[in-house]
Protein 1
Amino acid sequence: MKRETVLNLALLALLLGYPLWAWSVDEPFLITLTTRAVIFAIAGVGLNFALGFGGLVSFGHAAFFGIGGYAMGVLAFHAQSYSPMMEWPFLIEGTKSMPVIWLVAIVVSGIVALGLGALSLRTTGVYFIMITLAFAQMFYFFAISWPAYGGEDGLSIYVRNSFPGLNTMDPIQFFAICYVILLLVLLFVWAAARSRFGLMLNAARQNEDRVQAVGQGPYRLYLVAFTVSGAITGLAGALFADLNRFVSPTMFSWQTSGEIMVFVILGGVGRVFGPVAGAMLFILLEHVLGGVSDYWHIYLGAILLGVVLFARGGLYGLIAGREVAHD
Amino acid sequence: MTEPILDVRGVTKSFGALVASNDINIDLKPGEIHALIGPNGAGKSTLIGQIAGGLPPDAGSVHFDGKDVTSLSTAARARAGMGRTFQISSLAMEYTVLQNVVLGALGHRGDVFRFFRPVMKDKDLLARADHALEQVGLEEFRGFRTSELSHGQRRQLEVAVALTLEPKAFLMDEPMAGLGAEGTHRLMGFLGGLKEQAPILLVEHDMDAVFALADRISVLVYGEIIATGSVDEIRANPDVRVAYLGEEEEA
């Protein structure tokens, strides 16, 4: 077995084993902590689809994370207050059903990613970074100034949303839901990276001229990648809001975009499981260093600097070596 | 006379005061190798850019396979059947040799938006890719990372990728540069047979190769075609001798 495969399986086992152990010794906080890591991993895997495979350095993925969060918040808010979202021309009511909320989060963030991508992808390099950041900031300030849904204070949802057959308020059961979703997302991204689309997208990142010379337009490839990427991150946002039973404009903030990017860079850009490692390391540092000092971000910064300077492939590059060309 | 597959009509392009292409007419007929020669800075790359796409001409038009392609993108022209190789190898360097040729076969086949089945297990694409690698003699290197190839091998790979596109015409920008004597010899033999499959517009510095291979030669100097003709005509043309072959007026 390749080292990368071993590392992938080890991460998944750790991510599953740790909360099970915490459950057996009745430490719900540690389960919730791991759930956070799982959800961050999903968001990171989403960003990695655009950043790692397409080379699209999006500094605006908080927009999709936040849209997912507000999709959950708005739907659940209307359900808990028994007020329909819309009565005319047809009735739309809120919902507390997780599958419906996920679907809405994926579709809405996907559509927004398509729109933002269509505009942003006309630029490249640092302009692309800036324009995605600008769009995310627009969402941030829009959320702050929208009193109907809490404005700056955000929205509290009293009871976690429901999933058929499960008690979602039980931390280990909610963890299981998130873990399975992470597996499905990883399976999709793993397959997509090896698919026709993945081959062409990765080639466009390496050399646009080459892709054009074989008759394909990079813009369409990037747009599809950005849309899929936004939809995955949006799904993570909905889960994150459900974990906290709270949404606020912070989900839209540029710090959130930065954190999602940190997961990807720490773990290994362009490696399917990279963001999983990155998110786990991030949560570990937040938990351990956060106990040492409120200013733990200083240490995170130093570690990030080390990774960028000395281990460009992130944790995966360090442990599993250079990516093996798969054929 | 047979209809040309590629027909460049009155193409003009200037960058500020520099006229890189001045009313250029050049065509490519089925079954021939048409070589484009000219000293450095004559505007060969500019002309190739306008033919392959990406560089819009100020005036004039490019016709390919009976259609006006002047306003089409590079990708659309490639789909229409232009198989281009680059002067400076332009490959996906992180990929293996095989992945690069599969990329070509995939680009040609179209349907890129498939997300589930592994592309490197697609028998049809692999067969096309392997066939192309055998044609240029790179089959032993199929598992190598492209960045590990020598300069000459990259040139061969460029040609192999163009082959997977099953083009109606090849545009080859100095395919022999850096190949060495043996490689050049081998590629020459190969191109001589390839022209039956699709005609080749060949930009080349190697004069021996051009004179041995080309059916027709056009000479580009300071953005203008100063002569077009058979090998013998070009050899005998006094303007060409002065302007390009570097001969002072002796007699």
Protein 2
Amino acid sequence: MSSEKVDVNLTVNGEPHSVSVEPRELLAQTLRERLDYTSINIGCESTLCGACTIHVDGKAIKSCTRLTVQEDGSEIRTVQTLSNDGVLGDLQTAFSEEHALQCGYCTPGILMTVDEYLDNNPDPSRDEIRSEALQGNLCRCTGYENIVDAIDVASDALEE
Amino acid sequence: MATDSGIGSDVQRREDRRVLLGESKGTDDINVSDALHIQFIRSQKAHARFSIDAETAREMNNVVEVFTPEDIKQCETSTPLPFRLFAAPMPGLDYPDKALWQRCFADKKAHYHGEILGLVVAETQRIARDALEAIDITYDVLEPALTPTEALASDAPAIHEEVPDNIVFSAGQGDEASVAEMFEQASYTAELEKDPQRLSPSPLEPRSAIAAYDTASGHLDFTATTQIPHAYRRLMAQMLAYPEHHIDVTVPDMGGGFGARQHPYPADVLLGWCAIELEETVRWRATRTENQLVENDGRGYEGTWEIAMADDGDLLGVRADIRYDLGAWVAWGAASLAEAGNLLMTGLYDIPTAYSHVTGVVTNTARVDAYRGVSSVPMILMLERLVSKVAKQAHMDPAMVRKQNFVEPDQFPYQAPGGALYDSGDYERNFDLGLETIDYELLREKQERLREEDRYIGIGFACATEVAGLGPASHIDAPSWGYGSVQVHPTGDVTVYSGGSNHGQGHETSLAQVAADELNIPFDDVRVIENSTKEVNEGVGTFASRTAALSGGAVTKSCRKIISKGIEVAADELAVPAEMITYDDGEFTATTENGDIQSFSFDEMASKVHLGQNIPDDMEPGLAAETYYDPENCTWPFGTHIAVIEVNPTTGEFDFLDYVATEDCGVQINPTIVEGQLIGAIAQGVGQALYEDVEYGEDGTLLSDSFRTERVGSRGGYTLPKAEHMPEITICSTETPSPHTPHGAKGMGEMGSIAAPGAILNAIEDAIEPFDPEPMTPPISSEKIWRAINTEGT
């Protein structure tokens, strides 16, 4: 197994970082372990639960199965970019008001997934929220209903 | 003053903000720069003698140590003890042989896929994983027994030589003769088999822990994913033979528990042992696969359930013969779980007699223990299926049979034949609300009409109760009180220390509501602390729907002690007898005989008592109260769940059309949180009914060792329900306060997972009734429905 390190440049939430990683190191590991972006949660290591979802170059991706060396030069956004100086964004506010989280482990990933989804489909039906927006995310606590409500409310707020 | 945020208010949760901002911190998020990383050597075989060659791994760069069973046993300074947890001795059941209590590591023989055979300590997690791959294990494979039926077969292998028949306990509970008599008298009887479906609680955050040993102080500091920080400390002290006051446990934000983390695991003990042995900080994080392999499963019952009904629809008796899969070792709750199930054999009905025979069996599988709803789930599931089935046999409406048999409000406290003493209830009112909300009569008409158009909808009921707020101490052989202490600061601000363990339930909000309400002060003036043995003196943790009733009860009682002291101070200050003082809106008020009103605020009182000047002579300064609340009884919340499902008989495909749940958990502290807990638990019930199943291969290899997102009949992976699998749910509630908790709350965290599977199965069976289907066992798939209908040619 090659353990020769490779230099990788990443911009995370607007801040440039240079890291030197083994080729096998995963993006989620680099961001969590080296750069302390611990809002990225690793629930399954297999692209199934979506807790590690972040934006890479504007697209929502699951960072638990991306190799860091693939992402040299990437612009990365985490859930921290959805708020502004501690003021929650519309989607976050809706999640809080609708009680759309319990343990919160899946929440940052869901927020990043939905943030991208609403860009492409700003006024989804409840069925679309269930079967499209939340297709790739698991939540074990909420039963999803309040998450659907929150996305519904946030999409209404977007329209206004 | 507290009315807009006190008990009964839909206050937004305080814990949300840090999550939404991406600032919450779990155990694995904590950066410890000098920690060593542990990986466990785990058995790849379900039943095998083994030997380990770790020489190559030991010589690898940056590998600190490799411990095999031989090495662990040879360490003289600290040897992990057998897993010694308290199984409750119960009438009729022998205490499980200590030889069967879970060991921290296998010695010469592995008993299940994933059992710990040793551990690797390395500088980084990746190096520890590389070293694990370099370890050579030789197995001499033995035949495994994977289900109770297999383990009870005459030619079954003995999993432990101490119990050659694999039976750990076997006992009957209830009055067998009177039940038999009822079955003879009955006009109608129904019987159902249950497969040993096992569920994985599957919190989304995999387990992890950090154990830090401080050489200077001899202090052992754990950070861990557990639901029971204080009990974890006590058990670590016991298992590591280490002074309890030199151990601390902190639980950061945790990604779910659901019962799977209400007791420590061998991995936790070995981490502590390793930290002491190496005098270092060590950490471990489970992979998802490792988590699914060894985190305890739930359910695992198999057996036969029967019900007897009289000609007029009166239910006469229930009986069951249950084989309980314990896994390879006896986990702490094993025997008591079986007993708790018997408690609920008659559910919400006034059924005169019940009998169950329970056989606890070891198998070559991971341990089975608590999972949301525990053994209430199969009891209620089977009872509710039987009630619907026997009603159909008698051509009676299943709703009417239920209404006819409910325990009535004037029967409380009600002594159920299984041993439970239900505290309060109005089951029919709750059920009627459900019928009204779903529009039952119209639905039945619609069902008839649609059948003429070759469309099949079914209406399924499940009425349930759960054992919430477990107590009193005289009945439970483990600490079961609620702990709550309240510290009033000189400013009048308040810190509440609760012995619960928040991991998604919203205690930082709901317990603040309890204190604000009781003390009549603003919600924002109260802060709640849990999850740390450093900050909270004692606690039992959060499981079995206990915190609202027990920590909430303890906090309420502590607040009342504070108000009592405040009244004494106010009486002294205002120079009137204490009987003349009232406390309302944050003010102690005295109305003198001539009508003068004098008042003294909570904040002034707090400041005065803190200073300690001019307080009554026999009074100590300071304003704090601590309560260990031992309840008179458990609380018995209840509810009605109604599912409406359409089935396509040609393909077996099904869809939810509606789902109504009416909850009664007594006084609701925060109705939004109650609703959220209920819907979340229903989702786990949907998983049990339709998707989830722990699968072992024939050789005992766990197949469902990762998540998967679609259930297509193939093997491998564990299917958690997704958003698209869930119905839109309507929640409504009735309120029957608990007569014995100080604030009337009952607890409710498990009701959804207890009731939902029965409602869903009954709805599917109701839909396809015209086809006279074969019985089905969960998880129900389209294929199973199709096969149940199309019995010819399969």
